[in-house]
Write a structure and sequence with these properties.
The structure is a single chain. By secondary structure, the protein is an alpha/beta fold. It folds into 2 domains: 292 residues, 3-Layer(aba) Sandwich (UDP-N-acetylmuramoyl-L-alanine:D-glutamate ligase), CATH 3.40.1190; 131 residues, Mur ligase, C-terminal domain (Protein-Tyrosine Phosphatase, Chain A, Alpha-Beta Complex), CATH 3.90.190.20. The strands form 3 sheets. It has an 8-stranded mixed sheet with strand order 4-3-2-5-1-6-7-8, with helices on both faces. It has a 6-stranded mixed sheet with strand order 12-13-17-14-15-16. A 3-stranded antiparallel sheet has the order 9-10-11, covered by helices on one side. Helix 3 packs parallel to helix 6. The radius of gyration is 22 Å and the shape is globular. The termini are far apart. The N terminus is likely disordered.
Length: 433
């Protein structure tokens, strides 16, 4: 037996269970978020993966990127592509983050990828997100995919996903969020999002009012940029909606199977990105229609019907909460509306409460754990500062306590809207399951 074979045979992974790998990653780096590409790029090179043998679509944005990724995956899969999909965060299981042809990666597959990353990082400390990103790229290389659709985790320029050069870069809507890392205004944030653009490679922005910094950066590096209203557009029709691009027009398309009129804006940006790839990966109208009709995404106005209707939405910044309020208004209910809310401290909590003021009969505020979590008491202070109102308010120590009490309190015909954080929605989703 060769020396290499002996070493391979004697190697023991750090952990054998996915839960143990994830628990270690959560505490091994010291900080939850540390932007920068140097560590991740160095480990990627040590892993020997090289230039991806597949096409890459990277998707950034404050809101709409998850929906855009789901739409891209659905349409490309309908077109016969073997799609690798990487998203974050997850709702119920970590495996949701890494999918091949619509199927989440298995525990053993992810553990093997983590072990490969661990053995090739050479002592470089990686964040939880960086470990997962590199593991996804390793799995994609072994899965013989045709195209990878990658959701940027935070920002763009310095996010781990950005170590791969996108063949097409899509930026969805841009709003104020993560100001500690990305800057205090849309211009600063837009410049960070534009960091996924590459010279000579097509870029798309589906925000109808893109920051000037994003447009300027595309021009500086020579990335051909498609803008909504200038290079492509869309409009509602009696039979659905129409999309037009630089070279084609698609009339009476079916609407996406996702709640909210804003999904037409996301879908229009997706079609512009696919148009930019048409010479390398053509997509037929039939595939577009099939993808629009079958796309699904948990946690985005996800409705559970019953005597009491539960609605789960991960909206967690003012722009997304404003859209959520508009969507909720289109679906009235006969009974009372309850809001079950938990939020992270670095969000514009007061701004979101102001948007939702007067829309619920009873607010249920809960404590989220962790360094970024908020207490129910702090949420109540922000609720009062936002204007409060005549609604009833209850405070809870955790998600389970809130869920169990709301179940007892809500009457047939009532509805419960859960929003404010992925953690809040995930906690309730697990309890509903």
């Amino acid at each position: 037996m060769s020396t290499a074979s002996i070493a391979a045979a004697s190697h023991r992974p750090r952990f054998s269970r996915l839960a143990d790998w994830l628990a270690w990653q959560e505490s091994s780096h010291g900080t939850e978020i540390e932007l920068g590409l140097e560590r991740c790029r160095a480990v990627y090179e040590h892993m020997g993966l090289g230039k991806p043998p597949y096409l890459v679509i990277s998707v950034a944005g404050t809101n709409g990127k998850g929906s855009s990724v789901a739409l891209l995956d659905a349409i490309l899969s309908a077109a016969g592509c073997r799609v690798g999909r990487y998203t974050s965060p997850h709702l119920l299981r970590y495996n949701e983050r890494i999918q091949i042809a619509g199927v989440p990666a298995g525990d053993e597959e992810i553990c093997a990828a983590f072990d490969f990353v661990d053995r090739h990082r050479g002592g470089v400390s990686l964040t939880y997100f960086e470990f997962g990103t590199l593991a996804a790229f390793y799995i994609f290389n072994r899965a013989a995919i045709d195209i990878a659709v990658l959701e940027v985790g935070l920002g763009g320029r310095l996010d781990a996903v950005n170590i791969l050069d996108a063949d097409v870069a899509l930026v969805a809507t841009i709003d104020i969020d993560h100001v500690e890392w990305l800057g205090p205004d849309r211009e600063s944030i837009g410049r960070e999002k534009a960091g996924i653009f590459r010279a000579g490679r097509p870029a798309v922005c589906s925000d109808p009012d893109p920051p000037a910094s994003l447009v300027q950066y595309a021009g500086q590096i020579g990335a051909p940029l498609s803008l909504c209203g200038r290079d492509y557009g869309w409009g509602k029709t009696a039979a659905g909606w129409t999309w037009w691009g630089r070279d084609q027009r698609l009339v009476d398309l079916p609407p996406p199977r996702l709640h909210g009129e804003f999904q037409l804006q996301n879908a229009a940006g997706v079609l512009a990105a696919l148009e930019a790839l048409r010479d390398r990966r053509p997509v037929s109208r039939a595939a577009i229609e099939q993808g629009l009709r079958h796309v699904s995404l948990d946690g985005r106005f996800q409705v559970f019907h019953g005597p009491v209707t539960w609605i789960l939405d991960v909206a967690h910044n003012p722009q997304s909460v404003r859209v959520l309020a508009d969507t909720l208004a289109l679906h009235p209910c006969a009974g009372r509306t309850h809001f079950l809310v938990g939020m992270l401290r670095d969000k514009d909590i007061r701004g979101m409460f102001q948007i939702m003021a007067g829309r619920a009969a009873h607010w249920h505020l809960l404590t989220l754990p962790g360094r970024r979590g908020t207490t129910a008491g702090y949420l109540y202070e922000q609720w009062l500062a936002a204007g409060g109102g005549n609604a009833a308010v209850s405070l809870y120590d955790d998600v389970e306590a809130a869920y169990m009490w709301v179940r007892q309190l809500a009457s047939p015909g009532d509805r419960v809207l859960v929003f404010g954080s992925f953690l809040t929605v995930a906690g309730v989703a697990k309890l509903i399951e």
